[in-house]
């Protein structure tokens, strides 16, 4: 908006007051001559006053703002303290305001006409002067605030002389206080130390223990958001833990056996978190949803077909499985039938593709573990002959990388895991070693660490979220020490940290990148969660702060009950009872309480045969389970009745009593020596 000149700032015609207008408006004072303002002169005077004031206050020293090229005191100068600058600005503003007020009063007195109406005009002007001054103050304040940030330019004549003088005396701004530098350096050193030392980022200051059961926790799974944990073990159970809904009692909200009587070997959430892959000791993998309901089950193959590529599924026990990190609904399993198969959730009747590991001589070899790369383009599998083979996901014939002596032959390599950058592969061998491989130069291991005992075929390893550490667990015999969680630095592969978990083996370990918490499965049925209140997010922190819920007490009536004894039956409300009485009543009801039927007493009823009755069937039922075994000698049992049968023949002898000849036997010689060596048929004569 352009500023109006002196001739443009005009009021109404000053020919004289209008009496009709005064009556209409309710006050007099009209006819005042319009005031004129020279805004440019006002701004120029304000600028000069501010410059003079700043010169007097600050001087012309080498460290002054004027010597450094700052001709107006403001917050951007940086040479004075904030309090001193604020005082100077306030003084300059007060002086400017006083000068402006004096000028305005002078001009008002000059413009007023010496008439009878002039007194009214002067009175009105005096009344309106505070309003005008306040507006002028606001304009000056806004201008001064703008000047504080940038400052108005000086005329050329005023700038020429100081510039030549400033060029000779420029030294530079004063350095900041020394103690601030020391503090900043200390903070920077602390941050650099934390960045250089990855051990400081391990969240192990606090822990919680989840009781899964009494047998080995052989599988752990955590959804991508970190809200739910699922555990599986040798007791065939799969338990669900919800951190947000769990209190300090640390109890699972659901337990099920999805694979009946097969040990759980692997559990993993899909990349979307809505499905869980369950791999057990059977030949058929299952997929369940977040609540434990079955989504699909892989088909079983034909074990009588020689070529495993021609079957529709696995024919032997599974080892492990893994979801594709990018494609929804695709997963992979490996089995004792010497194949690695990929599946799709939408097509459970047949696998998607089959990979057949082979030795260098072309013989079959059983894969013990498998996994996808971070981008999902590679499939890696470790085999029983100690080799590690890596295929392209779309090429199933020949492996892209094949290292035949990665670990000792005959040992089960329990885990292979890719780093987050996708260039490094870690393998946990059954030969008590942990090795690191660069897949870009897959001809020898980068590093190798030994002395890590393992006794479980699913002992795994994982990378830290920042890819600077590698974690694995160790196994111990019962009563021979404690299992440990061992941390290796990826750059040097030094053993930098250890955590004593419990007096049992450490089987599973999982380091979630979002929560920054470590989950551990042990051999004594425990699942432990390690976290740090400052470094970790959500997860175990949500349930630790919740107090344990009290036992649910019997509920009482929640609303008033109106008793109407004389109401008609159709309008009569059923009498309300407390939950305690209803539970006691349901307990007595055999249908609601699922009470097993007691054995039938008496002759039988309801289609059931009684165990004590007078019928033949009841007698048979009663005596069918009696133990009638005779452990005596059968010959003695028969001869026991021989004398009674001879004295009182009843069955066979009376029938042949008339026709049966009388048997006659020759006398046996008493000389034992003569008859000792004779055959038996010579001794008997008829």
TrEMBL record:
Residues 1-24, 47-78, 91-204, 572-611, 663-686 are annotated as: Disordered. Keywords: Acetylation, Isopeptide bond, Phosphoprotein, Repeat, Ubl conjugation, WD repeat. Residues 137-149, 180-197 have a biased composition (Acidic residues). WD repeats lie at residues 210-242, 311-353, 416-440. One of its GO terms (molecular function) is enzyme binding. The keyword Repeat applies. Residues 91-110, 158-168, 572-597, 676-686 have a biased composition (Basic and acidic residues). InterPro entries: WD40/YVTN_repeat-like_dom_sf, WD40_repeat_dom_sf, WD40_rpt, WD_repeat_GAD-1. Belongs to the WD repeat GAD-1 family. This is WD repeat-containing protein 70. It comes from Equus caballus (Horse). The lineage of its organism: Eukaryota, Metazoa, Chordata, Craniata, Vertebrata.
